[in-house]
Amino acid sequence: MKLNRRSFLGTAGVLGIGAGGIWAKSETGSDDKSDTALEKRATVSKIRVAQIKFYPDKGQMEVNHRRLNNILKDIEKEAVDVVVTPEGFLDGYVSTEKSVKKEDMIGYAIDPKTSDYSRSVSRWAKQNKAWVIYGCTRKAADGVFNTALIYNRRGLLVGMYDKLHLQTHDHKYTPGKHLHVYESDFGLFGVMICADRRWPETPRTLTLQGARVIFNPTYGMHGELNLCMMRTRSYENGIYIVFTHPGQSLITNHRGAVVCNNEDKNKTYTVTEIDLSRAPANKGGHIVDRRPDVYKL
Known about the structure:
single chain, about 300 residues, alpha/beta, Nitrilase/N-carbamoyl-D-aminoacid amidohydrolase, six-stranded mixed sheet, about 20% helix
């Protein structure tokens, strides 16, 4: 079966997805890549985003997944469009434990095509017609990755983003190799994981590919310094960023303003509505007025 690079609405696809990705069959038959065409094809501008916010137990995959299922039952009442978990959520980002060696990581890794955990997430996404961005450790023939699995409203696994920038404990993983945007009923979006945001090239690359919003599962640094960073990354690219940390749900908009900043330890998730029509594909300003002709070493 020949699969197109893009799909739309319920079967969103990927623009140039790399290793480990899955093509979704196109329902449009169109290959128009212009910003205007993509804006017209996006049928939703306002989306409700649920950010999971609690510290999962280290290495306790069954416990963490069971607790997530309980939270998802509550989220079902919220009629959300997207659910985002923190980085490495399933295994509790166990790589931070000094006792866990690189060779141990395979024991916490899943194959998304066969894992009961990923199948459960897929079923929930389909039943609730919501996107889910799910942090886990993924095993593949070419390594063990810090991954965000991307499920669409039909429960299809349409992307697997692997963290690019590895530091300290992250060297227990294999580094990712690709940055791509994904097409949905609310337009193009990107995913970056935790430290990826520290390199301005990451969100800029996704923005230049057409992303209006970037989902950022994370586990490490948060607080005041991170707030400054996220506001800057949003402002300089004219995009929304959804920063999802076990201790903080933060969303910044295209103007660098804070839309949501929840650090309430008693809340296990946060739901926020964002209007992506305020961050059009044609960003203007910081994007249009760039001078790549002189950005040379």
